[in-house]
Structure formats: structure tokens, C-alpha cells
């Protein structure tokens, strides 16, 4: 039986991506073979290829949902037919994927395939942002890009922690932010002054940057002191000016994100964490999906459906 997957042939832009055919892989010790029903599409998928640091073909995609089709000889927690999701895997843009059994989680029955495939990267990033700033109940934080995929997760998790969030977003997304418990604020001219108008007497506890724009960085530096500035946007300037940069490739961030995966699955399964999927694409159309995500305004999560 043959299988298809997207790979990056070398570092570069979308022109280096190609659809590759191969035999369906067999799971080895400690591994699970998943028949992919949906794969999450994230900005990091293209950014990491552009950044380089690898040689030869590199599989693409970090999170999937699907059905177990086989297990390695020592795997006892999973069996064929189990509905699962997997995160911090490599090669999710495929119709079949072999994943470490330790990175596989039972899919909650009420969660759709596309939603399950888009839960854990954004969710664990949001959890990491809030963890790093350690905002106490009743505190107020600034969140840049509050209506984005990570921002929506931050809003929902912060509400559970009784942390108030003033979140920047476009005017058409204000109701979305409000519905998730945030106080929306349009970005653009006068942002700093408008943020100051909404600040509590004690000021903002922290600034969380999921946007990476100069506007977000400038406003954050003016509002919050050292040690309480965090970014998940990968912007070099933010790190240079004192933001703590969070990344799944950083050992501390990776360990914390991994520790939160089952908790996030449980929240989504109970209906306490919403995953908003705005677009789905066929596996053949992965490049169009990446182009949409690359605009930074896809309107929600994006999934590939093999």
C-alpha cells in the first residue's frame, strides 16, 4: 500500500515543498501508525523550513488527528481502531504517520478531526505564555494578536485563571475576543495611549506578544517592566530588547508544553476549550493552506484533510 506526504527538499520558501509517495511505514518499538484524518497547519511549518538547519528531505507538520492502524511490538496502550491525536510529531502533512506512542492522546468523542488536529500546538504555546508570566488571579495582562490561534487559546486559559486580558485585534474580531472573556482593543494609531486608558491602577502585570509587530513591541516595552515580557512570535527584535522568547525547540518550553498536553485534551473534551477551525484543504492543496496561514489573518485554524 502506498502513502503520500509533503516534504521540504531543502531550506527555503514554499517552492521547496514537494508531495512524495512512499510505502506505508511500519511502526517500530514504541511507535504507533496513524491513518491521518486531519493535520494542523501552522505558521511554524513554513518558518522552520525557511530557517534551515537540516539537510535533505524533511517531513512537514507537527500535529495530526486520526485512527490507529498499527502499533509497535511493545506498545500496549493503543490498538487498531483507536481515535487519537498526536502532537510534537514530524510529518503530519500525510495520509499516514508513524508517531511515538508517548506523543499520542485519545481523541475526545465530541471533538472533530480538524479541531483535534489543531488543538495542541496553539494550546500548549498559550499555556507556556501564561506560565512564564505567572499572572496571579485578578491581574491584568496585555495580549497582542488576541484573535489569532494562540491568542484565542490564551483568552480561554486566562479566563479559567481569573486573569483579565486586554487583547489587541482587528475591528471585525472584537466580538470574538469579547466572547472569549477578553477586552478587545483595535490596533493602530494611538495604541499605547488607549492601552494606558484601560490599565488598572496597579498597571499591567505582563505583556504577551503573539503578533511580532513593531507596534506590539513598542507598546509592550512602554507598559511593562523587564522579566514580564514574553513573545511567541519569533521576532528577533523582541528578544534583543528584553522579551523572553518562547519556542517549542527550547528545552524549558518544550518540557512545559509536553506536560500540558493531556490537560488541554481534557479541557477540549469537556467543552471548556474551543478550537475554531476556519478553513480545510485537501492534502494536495497544502501550499494554498500555507499561503493562507502566512497572511497572518486566516480567521481561525486551518487543517489539511487527506
From TrEMBL:
CDD domains: MDR_like_2
Gene Ontology MF terms: NADPH binding; oxidoreductase activity, acting on NAD(P)H
Residue ranges of every copy of the Enoyl reductase (ER) domain listed in the record: 12-304
Pfam families for the chain: ADH_N, ADH_zinc_N_2
Superkingdom as given in the UniProt entry: Bacteria
Keywords: NADP, Oxidoreductase
Name by which UniProt lists this protein: NADP-dependent oxidoreductase
Amino acid at each position: 500500500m502506498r502513502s503520500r506526504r509533503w516534504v521540504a527538499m531543502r531550506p527555503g520558501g514554499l517552492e521547496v515543498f514537494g508531495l512524495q509517495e512512499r510505502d506505508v511505514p511500519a511502526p517500530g518499538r514504541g511507535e504507533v501508525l496513524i491513518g491521518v484524518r486531519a493535520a494542523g497547519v501552522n505558521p511554524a511549518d513554513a518558518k522552520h523550513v525557511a530557517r534551515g538547519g537540516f539537510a535533505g528531505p524533511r517531513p512537514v507538520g507537527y500535529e495530526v488527528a486520526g485512527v490507529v492502524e498499527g502499533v509497535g511490538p511493545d506498545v500496549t496502550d493503543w490498538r487498531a481502531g483507536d481515535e487519537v491525536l498526536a502532537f510534537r510529531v514530524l510529518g503530519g502533512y500525510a495520509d499516514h504517520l508513524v508517531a511515538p506512542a508517548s506523543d499520542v492522546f485519545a481523541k475526545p468523542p465530541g471533538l472533530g478531526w480538524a479541531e483535534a488536529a489543531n488543538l495542541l500546538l496553539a494550546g500548549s504555546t498559550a499555556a507556556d505564555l501564561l506560565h512564564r508570566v505567572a499572572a496571579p488571579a485578578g491581574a491584568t495582562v496585555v495580549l497582542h494578536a488576541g484573535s489569532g490561534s494562540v491568542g484565542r487559546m490564551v483568552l480561554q486559559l486566562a479566563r479559567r485563571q481569573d486573569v483579565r486580558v486586554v487583547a489587541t485585534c482587528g475591528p471585525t474580531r472584537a466580538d470574538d475576543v469579547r466572547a472569549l472573556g477578553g477586552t478587545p482593543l483595535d490596533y493602530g494609531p494611538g495604541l499605547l495611549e488607549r492601552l494606558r486608558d484601560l490599565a488598572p491602577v496597579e498597571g499591567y502585570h505582563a505583556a504577551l506578544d503573539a503578533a511580532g509587530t513593531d507596534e506590539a513591541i513598542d507598546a509592550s516595552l512602554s507598559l511593562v517592566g523587564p522579566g514580564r515580557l514574553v513573545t511567541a512570535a519569533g521576532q528577533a527584535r523582541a528578544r534583543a530588547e528584553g522579551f523572553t522568547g518562547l519556542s517549542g525547540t527550547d528545552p524549558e518550553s518544550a518540557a512545559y508544553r509536553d506536560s500540558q498536553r493531556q490537560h488541554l485534551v481534557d479541557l477540549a473534551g469537556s467543552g471548556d476549550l474551543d478550537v475554531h477551525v476556519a478553513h480545510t484543504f485537501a492534502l494536495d492543496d497544502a501550499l494554498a493552506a500555507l499561503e493562507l496561514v502566512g497572511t497572518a489573518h486566516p480567521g481561525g485554524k486551518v487543517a489539511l484533510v487527506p
